[in-house]
Amino acid sequence: MKPLKQQKIAVLYGGTSAEREVSLNSGSAVLQALQNQGFDAHGVDTKEVGLEQLKLQGFERAFNILHGRGGEDGTVQGVLEFLGIPYTGCGILSSSLTMDKLRTKMLWKGFDLPVAEMEVVTKSNFKQLDPQQIIAKLGLPLMVKPSLEGSSVGLTKVKRVEELQSAVEYAFQYDETVLIEEWLAGDEYSVPVLDGEVLPAIRIKPAAEFYDYDAKYISDDTQYFCPSGLSVAREQELKQLVKLAYDSVGCRGWSRVDVMTNAQDEFKLVEVNTTPGMTSHSLFPMAAKVKGYSFEQLVVKILELSV
After folding, report:
1. Quick check: 146 and 213 in contact, CB under 8 A?
2. Annotated catalytic, 188?
3. Residue (of 212, 261, 248) closest to 98 by Cα position
4. Left (φ > 0), alpha (ψ -120 to 50) or beta: where does 38 sit?
5. What share of the chain is helix, strand, coil (3-state, %, to 5)?
6. Is 151 a catalytic site residue?
7. Is 130 a catalytic site residue?
8. Is 182 a catalytic residue?
9. Which residues, in sequence order, are CB contacts of 62 under 8 Å at separation 6+?
10. Is 20 a catalytic residue?
11. From the candidates 23, 26, 64, 151, which is the catalytic residue?
């Protein structure tokens, strides 16, 4: 096989998911980094160009930086494997699994890994929703989220029983399945994994009540701490948990595992992002920088891990 710098590389970005704008920003940064490093890289917005065109246009490898459905859920991965084009990130199964928060958490529970207590609501059983019963079990406040979205799309913090039904209805705009979870009142950590190595954890302190879409991509008031400020022992505990979570769902290449603590300061796994953001606000480059990677070095490393 030809050396990477002699291959024509497609940077897949944009797409049609709710995270399109984030993907466009990530893709532009990745594309610039690869071109700066001398790679024959070209941006491909999958909303405008069908994946079947990749072979016809002579592409030999893909850097997948599509976020959300269609790019992070096994769909693009399956097409690329059918076309015989190596690509960055996780394979079909782990991409599909981790896009589904419900089934990811069910698998983690099967491995006896800690997750928040939750109730599941679908459009078919929504009429049987009993807010009082759910609150009696999970308490207040609650977090309501669609199972199949990323970037905090469709999330609501519920503080009163009267708000629960409308929060579920809002989440249904994004998915057929909605999770109602106990509120995790502690700190939030984002922990990248690169080539099987757990990078330093990032502690997130949003200015708002929780780390929503605006806090992630728009606000300049969110604070990030890397190193996280955890003790050496707690950082090691978190790393071990993240590695187990990463391995159990079959991740490869690079991914980011999000973790929170509850009021008792116990770690709870939240979700896996198999195609983390690579924007100016993104967390993966922040942790990689602490390990000595510049942004461009990180992008090249991820490309080198493509299979």
Report:
1. no
2. no
3. 248
4. left
5. 35, 20, 40
6. yes
7. no
8. no
9. 9, 10, 11, 12, 54, 80, 85, 86, 87, 88, 306
10. no
11. 151
Please report, as a single letter, which amino acid is at residue 179.
L
Q: In tens digits, what is the pLDDT along the chain, a chain of 307 residues?
A: 899 999 999 999 999 998 899 999 999 999 999 999 999 999 999 999 999 999 999 999 999 999 998 999 999 999 999 999 999 999 999 999 999 999 999 999 999 999 999 999 999 999 999 999 999 999 999 999 998 865 467 899 999 999 999 999 999 999 999 999 999 999 999 999 999 999 999 999 987 666 555 655 565 778 999 999 999 999 999 999 999 999 999 999 999 999 999 999 999 999 999 999 998 779 999 999 999 999 999 999 999 999 9
Pairing of strands 40-45, 8-13: parallel
Pick the closest to residue 66 from 35, 107, 95 (CA basis).
Answer: 95
| Active-site residue identified among 23, 271, 282, 293 | 271
C-alpha 12/C-alpha 46 separation (Å) is 7
Q: Minimal CA–CA distance to 149: which of 216, 245, 70, 207?
A: 70
Write down the pLDDT at residue 41: 98
CB 282 within 8 A of CB 276: yes
Give helix then strand counts, H and E, for the chain: 11, 13
Assigned token pair, 123: 């459009």
Whether 248 is catalytic is no
